[in-house]
Design a protein that fits this description.
108 residues; alpha+beta; Alpha-Beta Plaits; 4-stranded antiparallel β-sheet; two-stranded antiparallel ribbon; globular
Length: 108
């Protein structure tokens, strides 16, 4: 059985320069690389991905590092599914229900 203490989430947060055309292209390429890796956009510069193990987290962190643009700041957060269960989300002033983790059969 998979434990919520072993299942992990990876969150990539970034601020990238977008003043020059080449910077905008680099930022777009980085976003597209995250999407190609299976991340989904949570907010404009925040992307998340569910992982089934710490080794999978390490693999995705290495792939993100290879895709980094030249400028800007990128942070990668890692936390367990149990910790993610406590997220509180609002749309406007309306509190949203908690998101359900992917089913086990979706992981493999």
């Amino acid at each position: 059985m998979l434990s919520g203490y072993r299942l992990m989430w990876v969150v990539v947060m970034f601020d990238l320069p977008v003043v020059e055309k080449v910077e905008r292209k680099a930022a777009t390429d980085f976003r597209n690389a995250l999407l190609d890796m299976g991340f989904e956009m949570s907010q404009f510069s925040v992307y998340m991905r569910f992982c089934s193990s710490q080794s999978q987290v390490d693999t995705y962190c290495a792939q993100v590092e290879k895709s980094l643009p030249v400028g800007g700041k990128v942070n990668i957060l890692q936390f367990t599914d149990k910790q993610y269960e406590r997220i509180i989300t609002f749309r406007g002033k309306a509190k949203q229900p908690s998101k359900k983790s992917p089913d086990q059969y979706d992981l493999f």
